Amino acid sequence: MNTQVSAWRAALLALAIFAAFLAVWQSLATSGGGSATVDPEYAALVGQAAATGGQTPFPGPGAVAARLWELLRDPFYIRGPNDQGIGIQVGYSLLRVTAGFLLAAVVAVPFGFLIGMSPLLNAALNPFIQVLRPVSPLAWMPLALYTIKDSAVSAIFVIFICALWPMLLNTAFGVASVRREWLNVARTLEAGTLKTAWRVILPAAAPTILTGMRISIGIAWLVIVAAEMLVGGTGIGYWVWNQWNNLSLADIVIAILLIGLVGLLLDRALGAVARLVAWQE
Fold this sequence. Notes:
Layout: H1 2-31, E1 36-37, H2 40-45, E2 55-56, H3 61-73, E3 78-80, E4 83-84, H4 86-117, H5 119-132, H6 141-148, H7 151-176, H8 180-188, H9 193-231, H10 236-245, H11 249-280
Antiparallel strand pairs: 1-2, 3-4
């Protein structure tokens, strides 16, 4: 009963905070406090009315909601290479994130097993991992563009790099943390290395591995937006940058909301898988 009351109170408090946020937003938008000063020549260049003195009013909640409804009525239209629906743009980003994430999983999980099962290999590779792990994924973009010579594939490579380290380190930690009693039982039963890894180590380390995957997907979704701003072409990151060039502030706000919503859904999906694995154990 107390849990239900707490949940209701939390929901009501969240709604109150959201309503207050909308009220402040609307107040700033109508008072002109959210106006952004833009060079009149630049405004004229992108088709905006320079007669307003270079002031682009920040859209209020009503304007953003109306624009969102307009975009969602036809999210998959294609009117040219630089004019495609927001659903298509989000789809491109999700495809790149999925491809890079899966490639990272294929590499990180097996190598994490090897590092976790071998203290010697762990000690030998740890310096290299610690040097490469802090490097910003976007720092790899120039090299990727130079060697791969394809912006879309380069973006996937950047996602691969940023998703690799959390999965690798969490897998290695989970494997190394398996209880020695279980491994001793497997040796007593004369189970081979592969069978021990599959039947004993993998189930025990699965929650930790999935935690690494959950961290990786969040980082990957964050990085793809920045990567697409750099390489252009398609994707929600490119769409945000293109709307800024058009001074479409309402579209930018909508893109920010969609990026957050998609990131939440990705995190919840992997969180559900992690809870399912934990429950089965």
